[in-house]
Amino acid sequence: MTGASVADTALTDPDLRHSIAATLLPGFVGTTLPEWLAARLREGLGGVCLFGQNIASAEQLRALTDAIYAANPDAVVAIDEEGGDVTRLYYESGSPYPGNAILGRLGDVAYTERVARRVGDELRRAGVNLDFAPDIDINSNPDNPVIGVRSFGTSPQVVAEHGAAWTRGLQSAGVAVAAKHFPGHGDTGADSHLELPVVDLSAAQLRERELVPFRAVIEAGARAVMTSHILLPQLDAALPATLSPAIIGGMLRGELGFDGVVVSDALDMHGASGERGIPEAAVLALAAGCDLLCIGTENTDEQLAAIEHAIAAAVSDARLSARRLAGAAVRVRALASSAGSPTVESAKTDGLHGVSRAVIADSMAGAGSRVEEEDVRAAQRAFDVSAYAAEWLEANAGTYSVVRIDTVANIAVGTAPWGPFAEVEAEPTSPWAAAFAGNPMVLFTEGDHPDLVLAAQSPVLVIGKDNHRRAFARAAIDRLRAERERVLVVDMGWPSDDRAYADIATFGASRLVGRALLELLGHRS
Known about the structure:
Largest sheet: 8 strands, parallel
Number of helices: 22
Strand order of the largest sheet: 1-8-7-6-5-4-3-2
């Protein structure tokens, strides 16, 4: 028999077919549930992962999750909501939350727990039961292109304390966490969405640093852990962590004693499937010990069929045991059940916790999206403001030329509005937004001639993210400093240690942080 025939025969076994389906977590295109996906949910598909492009409004989101639960009351409905630069609930407007780097700098674990509880409450009202957060990578490399301000900091203890606080806060709202990216993505200089990063650390080095936060969140009761697509050659020279039995089975399950759901990072990322394709990556991830496979953002029925066939063939060929697959399915179903997925009846009538759908929509669009003064003050306390910046602010409050440096955002962040520009878009009639928008602005992007920035007249306010990592940004800032007086540079990403391109470092670029910056600049309500 051919491989396809073997897989087709294997898929006639209903137990095997249902076990395979339970491990799959695809994304999809659109803001309503496609029929092919609804049919798969009715047949036992593990769940659905929602992204920014699936969300148009609070009411639409709740209608979408209602439809998912109507098709499968035990579905996992997952989202990547970190409460900062990486946001899906506020992908169109920018997040009203501070983000991890600011929380870590503040050092107030009770505040971190409160923020996480608020995020969890919003997700719960939206019908989400699994959040791919917190990010507990230690940002030990300031040139990291994909973690940065998503991290609570550079200290294992700080990241551990705040990761545990976030876990407690989010799960107290009835939403499971998936702490990420095991065993640690913070010491990389490459983005696993685009390539396979290599982290040449020993198991002993990992235990001293990267694993400290994972131990803390496991002790705090984390229901799930997400893996990373990074190669650790001292642990497994052939396979990235997501696909490595030594790392998942040996280290996460064995050494750390984690018995919850292991979720793969998206298998459409180059670090997982670039050399082998998604179906084979799915087989290897399950064999390594993953339970729930995040497939990607824009999956199709045909892609899922190919993955199912590859898994079924692997079982028939004894590359993957049916027992391992069944155990993964049991864990996934237990996660959805314990997270308290709404019943079909409650979804059709009163929604979660007996709250009407209209109230859910009003709550999500109102209090949740509003920037709170407590958070603005907290964000400002986390800013690093140089003596030069303090002098500049005193002399030039409110009036200056703006140079906005736009870079290509990493795929995790996407194209969500950021910084003060997000706040101006969200609240255009507010006094602070109107005052800031009244200043002349130059937009500078990679490929523009450096002379373009000289259109800005003194005093000049430069706003960018991760300025030190971008050669074109450094060149533009150097040119401005040489040609213009009174240039103030703001970095809303993770700055270099020497702060060479960060007179003010905000350690985040959410809409909330943008509002805090506007107020610091003298644009107060």
